[in-house]
UniProtKB/TrEMBL annotation:
Residues 1-23 form the signal peptide. It comes from uncultured Dysgonomonas sp. Keywords: Signal. This is Major fimbrial subunit protein N-terminal domain-containing protein. Gene3D superfamilies: 2.60.40.2580. It comes from the Bacteria.
Length: 327
């Protein structure tokens, strides 16, 4: 009797195992196929580090749109406007419901933080994408990182069907330059505590995809409506950060200060390099109550108006990989 029970139990277990194996195979055949894209912000500084070179707010991504073309083609083959994405450590991950065997090899184009959905939906060619311009700013509404900088990136000739299931990697490039201003008074750190700056000749917009020349009209440039306060960082360095779109014209930086507690405002200015997307312009200005000391004299020494004060400006430029560049 026990042998019969044992035989029946063995058959039932065998049937159950066979059934489970068939279900697993069926799941493998029917599970959704997808391709993925890993997005990294190419800032020149590690996005794992949050410091003055790489503020957390500058990494804001509110929306992403994906465009595929056949290699070297002008025609958009697949388009996902405001695609969903997930945040993973220091990158964003997009997963799209596409069969790698159908997608094969494609050119990939990504646009981030673009607020005109209608314009994105109307894109049908790469030429349409190149014609897109960034969200506009003006004298009272400057570029603010918390709003999300418009960014663009591409990876060409990527094979989604190489059998590795590896995500495509696309570097996102910000369409604006970062300007960091530091003003000091080396002889007397507290010589002035009421300092501000203003940018003249900033572009209202630029193109989403960078060009050799933007060819913006004169009316497409503006001056900040009012000076912005420079903030003491605690070590008597008066500092502030601002952002301007990439453009052909050279901006001008104005510094305003009330020296030695007087009520007379002193104004001085310096031309900045042409703003290039994803570049950092690190500006240091030293103000002296008389001549610049002989040990620090340089070609960029200037008088402040008709006063006895002088200043020296130093501008260092860093590219999207954090390398110092000449301008």
């Amino acid at each position: 009797m026990h042998k019969i029970y044992y035989y029946i139990l063995s058959v039932m277990l065998l049937l159950l195992y066979s059934s489970c194996s068939e279900d697993t195979d069926g799941y493998s055949e029917n599970k959704p196929k997808s391709v993925s894209i890993k997005l990294v912000q190419q800032t020149g500084f590690s996005t794992k580090v949050v410091d003055e070179d790489n503020l957390l707010s500058e990494q804001t991504v509110k929306n992403l749109s994906v465009f595929f073309t056949e290699p070297s083609s002008n025609v958009i083959a697949y388009k996902y406007v405001y695609s969903g994405f997930s945040s993973v450590d220091d990158y964003k991950l997009i997963t799209l419901p596409l069969d790698p065997a159908a997608v094969l090899t494609k050119d990939i184009y990504i646009v981030a933080n673009y607020d005109n959905v209608s314009a994105l939906n109307s894109v049908s060619t790469l030429d349409d994408l190149k014609a897109l311009t960034t969200p506009a700013v003006n004298k009272t509404n400057n570029l603010v990182p918390e709003n999300g900088f418009c960014m663009y990136g591409s990876t060409l000739d990527f094979n989604f069907n190489d059998g590795t299931n590896s995500p495509a990697i696309v570097n996102l490039i910000r369409s604006c330059a970062k300007i960091r201003i530091n003003v000091t008074f080396p002889e007397n750190p507290t010589l002035s505590t009421n300092n501000s700056f203003l940018i003249q000749n900033a572009a209202k917009y630029t193109y989403v995809i960078g060009r050799t020349e933007n060819n913006l009209a004169a009316a497409d440039y503006f001056t900040y409506a009012a000076p912005i306060a420079l903030v003491d960082n605690g070590a008597h360095v008066y500092t502030q950060t601002t952002y301007v779109y990439e453009a052909d014209n050279v901006p001008k930086l104005y510094i305003y200060t009330y020296m030695n507690g007087t009520s007379t405002m002193q104004e001085f200015s310096t031309n900045l390099p042409r703003p290039i997307r994803n570049h950092l312009f690190d500006i240091s200005i030293e103000v002296y109550s008389g001549d610049v000391p002989s040990g620090t004299k340089s070609a960029n020494e200037n008088k402040i108006g008709q006063s006895a004060y002088t200043y020296k400006s130093t501008i260092n430029v860093y590219d999207e990989k954090g390398r110092k560049v000449e301008y």
